[in-house]
Amino acid sequence: MTLAELLAQAELTGSDSPRLDAELLLCHVLGKNRSYLRSWPEAQPSDDQVATFESLLARRRAGEPVAYLLGERGFWSLDLQVSPATLIPRPDTERLVELALELGPQGPASVLDLGTGSGAIALALAAERARWQLTGSDRIAAAVELAQSNGRRLELDNTRFVQSHWFAELQGQRFDLIVSNPPYIAADDPHLNQGDLRFEPRSALVSGGDGLDDIRQLITAAPDYMHTGGWLLLEHGWQQAEAVVALLQARGFSDSRSWLDLAGNPRVSGGRWHG
Fold first, then answer.
1. Among 7, 93, 200, 263, fewest CB within 10 Å belongs to which?
2. Which of 32, 62, 92 marks a domain boundary?
């Protein structure tokens, strides 16, 4: 069976991008890029490669995310290793990176990424700002190990990753910029039982009855870990912007506002701490 025939008969019902998913899985099995499939459609994979591909298709049909099947995901300009211990980095979160680069200090700075997961946000910022020192924290040991591995592989020496539940292990430290993509989905949200979310860690998704428990905690605690003039930037659900801005204002943050993502939805809110 040729590569073209194998792709033609690949069935991925339930996927929003069945052809792309099949191509990515086949390339993973072959150890090739997608241009190879177009250049050599008549190539014939081995029986073992066909069997592995069919196994991956079956797992994808069951809903398992492509990123977990591949063990990697592109984010910003980086290729990151991912695992079921962490959220899959998403394009929406690149808006948080953009704002951090825009609003953060232009010179040397100490920056904190809370709930770092695979290290996506911290590593993207480290890659763009060589004079920034990035700290990424996560309460899950496997996530910290994964972020550290990504940092070493990408040779981003201006990063460190620590195991900490939010600020618990960061006592006495202060930062010029704090960013986070915390859990923000309500516990009864039906989307938790759909698509990729079914396979991602609930602890990184769910935050109380209204999805704001962790955001409330971060906004309350953050000023004790911030230098004067520093920004706190938080990703959240598109319906939560008004509530998050109100929490920032109530805690005493100035310049509190929200920013839109590429789809035109309010995705990030933040404020500046002046003490």
1. 263
2. 62
Closest CA to 94 of 263, 272, 271: 263
Predicted TM-score (pTM) of the model is: 0.88
Residue 243 DSSP SS3: helix
Task: Let me know: does 100 contact 179? Beta carbons within 8 Å.
Answer: yes
- Contact indicator for 121, 94 with CB cutoff of 8 Å: no
- What sign results for the dihedral spanned by CA atoms 169, 172, 173, 179? positive
Cβ atoms of 264 and 251 within 8 Å: the answer is no
In whole angstroms, what is the distance from residue 22 CA to residue 246 CA? Answer: 45
The reply to whether 116 and 12 lie within a common domain is no
Instruction: Split the chain (275 residues) into runs of 10 and give each run's mean pLDDT.
Output: 88 80 92 90 92 92 89 92 90 95 96 96 97 96 96 96 96 97 79 68 72 93 97 94 96 96 93 91
